[in-house]
Give the backbone structure.
Amino acid sequence: MISVVIPVRNGMPLLEEQLRALAAQQCDEPWEVIVSDNGSNDGSLEFARDWAATRPNVHVVDASGLAGASAARNAGVDVARGDLLAFCDADDVVLAGWLAACAEALKSADLVAGRFDFWSLNLIPPAPPVRAATRQLGFLPAGLGANLAVRRHPFEEVGGFDETCIPGEDIDLCWRLQLRGFTFAEAPAAVVAKRARSDFHSVFVQAYAYGKCGPLLHKRYRKAGAGRDLKGALKAWAWLVVSLPRIAQPTRRIEWARGAGTRLGRIEASIRLRVFFP
């Protein structure tokens, strides 16, 4: 069996769209969906319970004990019955064939990452899906928790997601598994439509949070080979300075917010963790 775990915190109304997309999946492997609610106060938990009441393969767990997607995913795995685990997010949409592709890829690998469609849910021109697996920090390849699948035994052997590593818990998991000797592969047919944030504040806040994971991952894994791109950092800071007078342009504002948020997040975490990672 393959268990799909969705961490949710105030996911309405987008949660319904994701659940409908999962309900339409065709997969030869028996499967179930675990909605792991991380303390929602917008009706997500009640909606998920109503949804599960008429669908025997959908289950809901109250994962409000500890805030964070990693804790919610771990709580979902605790009640999941599958030997295969797949993870996606409440505000995205899995495309047709996603679940079957995850199950197929796990026949020959311990951990797999799919691809992202960035145009279906956003106002941008159509483009081919983008690989979720990238070599972060010039180190090992890693996928993202919004489109990731893993065998249960390796997941449990390394202790699941690190609940203190937020965000970056997905990259951390991928690296710990590979350093333990488990195999990583890509699943090109496992495509998730990713919903992008579109206003300055939300883009900046998200990028700031993502930026903070870089110094932490570098500090944890630098002895194993996780490096830093100082030349790239210098170029990024220079671009932010040069582009500042033009942020009145809508497209440039969003790009600038993403770049500034990432860099400032790195500075904050570098100071806190006493590591140089600009």
Q: What stands out?
A: The radius of gyration is 19 Å.
